[in-house]
Amino acid sequence: MPYDSGAVQVANYGGFGMPTVVLLGGTDHRIMFSSQSFSTADTTEMRDSILALLETPSAITSLPSAVSSFNVFPNPANNNVSIHFDLKETSTLLLEVTDIAGKQIALIAEEKQSGAVTKQFNTAALPNGNYFVRLQVNGKSASQKLTVAH
């Protein structure tokens, strides 16, 4: 969020101190941690906030209307992962793996499909960590968390 003066920052984060530490997270960029000082105990609280964000359930709460199911397995993955989804109609899809910031790591498919679809993805080249498998169908998206653990 751009700021044109320090007054806007002070009002937005509730004060100004040195150092001011603000941890933003989630798709809504909510404030997960805020402090106008710093102690080493803060790192534990920040770590716990980040882990809680990443440990959200991997189940999908809402799928695009053209998709009846979307699964990623095994999860956690150590080498290969299968991505399975059922399309109710012929649809244009984009299937990708992104990092936690949303940056594309790998493009798995960009095509028209219908019915039951299973794609394989080799995770061997990915460092251990959390990623997202994003399925976009007819412009609407759903994501599943993917944990890579070699």
Structure description:
The chain has helices at 6-13, 40-54; strands spanning 21-25, 30-35, 67-73, 80-98, 104-122, 129-137, 140-148. With 150 residues, the chain is of the alpha+beta class. The protein folds into two domains: 6-54, no CATH class; 67-148, Sandwich (Immunoglobulin-like). It is elongated. It starts with 5 loop residues before the first helix and ends with a strand.
List the keywords:
150 residues; alpha+beta; Immunoglobulin-like; 2 domains; five-stranded antiparallel beta sheet
Q: TL;DR of this structure?
A:
This protein is α+β, with helices and mostly antiparallel strands and 150 residues long.
Q: Class of the largest domain in CATH?
A: Mainly Beta
Q: What is the fold named in CATH at topology level of the largest domain?
A: Immunoglobulin-like
Order of helices and strands: HEEHEEEEE
Structural class: alpha+beta
Terminal-residue CA separation: 37 Å
Oligomer: single chain
What value does the Rg take, in angstroms?
19 Å
- The total domain count is 2
Which term fits the overall shape?
elongated
Helix content percent band = 10-25%
Q: What portion of residues belong to β-strands?
A: over 45%
- Give a short account of the largest sheet: 5 strands, antiparallel
- Summed over residues and divided by their number, the pLDDT gives a mean of 83
Number of separate strands: 7
CATH architecture of the largest domain: Sandwich
Poorly predicted parts: none
